[in-house]
Please model this.
Amino acid sequence: MRRQLLTSTTALVLLLGAGHAYAGMDEAKAFLDKEIGDLSTLSRADQEKEMQWFVDAAKPFAGMEIKVVSETIATHSYESQVLAPAFSAITGIKVTHDVIQEGDVVEKIQTQMQTGQNLYDAWVNDSDLIGTHWRYQQVRNLTDWMAGEGKDVTNPMLDVDDFIGKSFTTAPDGKLYQLPDQQFANLYWFRYDWFNDEKNKADFKAKYGYDLGVPVNWSAYEDIAQFFTGREIDGKKVYGHMDYGKKDPSLGWRFTDAWLSMAGNGDKGIPNGKPVDEWGIKVDEKSRPVGSCVARGGDTNGPASVYAIQKYLDWLKAYAPPEAQGMTFSESGPVPSQGTIAQQIFWYTAFTADMAKPGLPVVNDDGTPKWRVAPSPHGVYWKDGMKLGYQDAGSWTLMKSTPTDRAKAAWLYAQFVVSKTVDVKKSQVGLTFIRDSTIHDKSFTERAPKLGGLIEFYRSPARVQWTPTGTNVPDYPKLAQLWWQNIGDASSGAKSPQEAMDSLCADQEKVLSRLEKSGVQGDIGPKMAEEHDLEYWNKDAVSKGNLAPQLKIENEKEKPVTVNYDELVKSWQK
Model:
């Protein structure tokens, strides 16, 4: 893919007039001819109309050099290597689009927030920071920007309502603070061919008394993991589960990316539980964080959260390859493609393109996958109306510390790479969908059979239950780093799950308390609640029609439930 992108870039630079003194529609038409073609939801006439708007809007900024940054994924590599040179040729604005590790993006935006030094003119920054940006008020809210100061550089064809992640980047004040650039979910991944093998189905039914299928709950997932672990298929010993456990910053993502909500932590609510979210942080009626521990009405160390950690540890040790315990996120990602994993409860769809490459043990000779993705199973504490998984939504963010003219030029580039002209082609490269119109484009109907259910999921009504971190988290950079350190202690065996979550919630409350004392977030910052026991807060929650923190369920092994994958997909289409 990298070689293809570089080749494409070279061709575009030549075609779009490297060395030309002028930018404009000739360069735009060359770009449309060679890069977009019919891979757009817009007609050619509307593509040219949109490009003409960019040409005209960019004239005051011709010759300006701007810098933007995003994390390292295929979508952003395509933007950096193909779309940035095209935009520069079309508009005369020279764009340097840096692609760096996710942790570095967070660290650098934190530095710009703290120092006011303009490191980048625009950021593709995870919407997980929406609560941070709303409370610190250091980014331009895009609702006001598009209607006011940035109106002259806001694309009339942008169509904000077409963005499927708009609710993720909208704060409690109703304002849009970030504009989605890419999205991917964590879903359930499984070997469709193995699940439909007659002997596997018969053996499973004989042992467990119900049909082998997509697990609806964790109880069924556990049975399937046990069934496949140690089984020999195609001459290889296989495993019923895959995960990772090294004490490393990526371990934190494994849990802040909605693992606790899948278990049933927090309250009902889409995109996030209220008043208690999937991190276990509770807010009051003014959206002020009041606590993380159950002693203050939070749920980070409640029964549902402890259950989530215990199941993670049990499955990692019993049903995953032994080496998984020492792996990081990036090391574990390719393992299912090697052909010895039956299912994975927590699989990021960002790996779809790599998992669908011809010649892999998990791909048929005709290019169709031997695997499928489906909605994740939920834990025993989960209730209908809760979120059920995570979506990463890297989103364009404009800092107030960026000079207005530079922010305007960068905003033009941001809109170019998410435009309807460009989005279908970009989504074909990265498979990280942001627009409803793109998901329903005919090109994805044609490609769907080779993507293992990804398109069916994104077109389904289930999609809305997969959401990023919400607005209850008041300082994502400070709080997120606490997770891998504390859960790493449980993963290593240094602490029990209860001890680890007790420590985590206490550490989170130290940050909340410091924010409260500093007053830096004003009247929407933390306001810590009084301490009481679990029973007190559960009774208080129930009296108000809420759930969290829930009391411990004595029998956490509920009746297992599975569903036939093909019937599930048909039900969505109805």
Observations:
- The two ends are 37 Å apart (CA to CA).
- Residues 1-21 have pLDDT under 50 and may be disordered.
